[in-house]
Specification:
CATH superfamily of the domain at 28-102 in chain A: Winged helix-like DNA-binding domain superfamily/Winged helix DNA-binding domain
Strand content of chain A: 5-15%
CATH class of the domain at 28-102 in chain A: Mainly Alpha
Distance between the termini of chain A: 31 Å
Structural class of chain A: mainly alpha
Radius of gyration of chain A: 21 Å
Number of strands of chain A: 3
Shape of chain A: globular
Oligomer: homodimer
Largest interface: A-B, 75 and 74 residues
Order of helices and strands of chain A: HHHEHHEEHH
Strand order of the largest sheet of chain A: 1-3-2
Chain lengths: 136, 136
DNA sequence: AGTATTAGTCTCTTTTTGAGACCAAGTCTA
DNA sequence: TAGACTTGGTCTCAAAAAGAGACTAATACT
């Protein structure tokens, strides 16, 4: 009922029906939630090029804490994107490298990274516009 | 010096030189950090299909809080990915829709989403393997 | 009068993240 | 030989972010 003025029509649940999109129980979310952290893509980008050791990654990403580096690497390893190999030296050294699964994910992911690089200007411009307060 | 056993060689800063990759001052991070939140991709995915109103999005993503919905939408709007249009009805209704910039980002992004959907099984398998504790 | 709607904001609690000390075992330096 | 430095972490504590839920104003419906 109701029909309030010129309001756009309500289209309940159409998305769900069209592609079976149940946001609450979604395999895509299960995967994406893990790689959408602040550090995941950054570390993937590094390891996509070559294997790195713990300390090297820490120097490469200067503003990550050891705690988050450890944890993010573990998460990526758990999901099968990277491999962890311990060299029994003194002190022991640990090398992280990308798995085939990781590389297969990084392929589409790198396209997003490329987009970000290409369109950084547009995004900065949009931010400036928004911050100048023209909400008209 | 040192030369500790069979340890892989240290390749300091190679990544930086090769592609000018300064993780601390990186335009890619500036863009990625915003869209890598827990809810950003989810809302983009919804709005890529059609415009939605605030309450519709809330119902569509049942486990998002109003607070985070408001904030994530504002962030996406600020970066120019979505548009916010207020209809002066009583009570007022607000419609969110994707901008051309948003669509252009969603193109590569949807590939990652597709990958997640396709490879959910492999990721779950990797997790099971890891959790079974075979760190051999 | 009472209830429901809209799109939020405000406060309070819980979770996540960041900063930094600390660890063992060995190597290098003085 | 004492002291400092290296490795890849873990532990604790403080700060920041996120979640839960109450609350708002103006109006419509019952």
């Amino acid at each position: 009922m109701a029909s309030i003025a010129t309001r756009p029509p309500v289209l309940d649940g159409e998305i769900c029906d069209t592609r079976g999109w149940d946001a609450g129980n979604c395999p895509v979310r299960d995967v994406i939630d893990r790689i959408s952290g602040k550090w995941s893509t950054l570390l993937m980008e590094a390891l996509a090029k070559q294997p790195y050791r713990f300390g090297e990654l820490r120097r490469l990403v200067p503003d990550i804490s050891q705690r988050m580096l450890t944890q993010t690497l573990r998460d990526l390893q758990r999901d099968g994107y990277i491999d962890r190999q311990v060299f029994p030296t003194k002190p022991p050294s640990v090398e992280y490298s990308m798995t085939p699964l990781g590389r297969s994910l990084f392929e589409p992911l790198s396209k997003v990274l490329q987009w970000a690089s290409d369109n950084h200007g547009s995004v900065k411009a949009a931010r400036a516009r928004y911050d100048d307060g023209d909400l008209a």
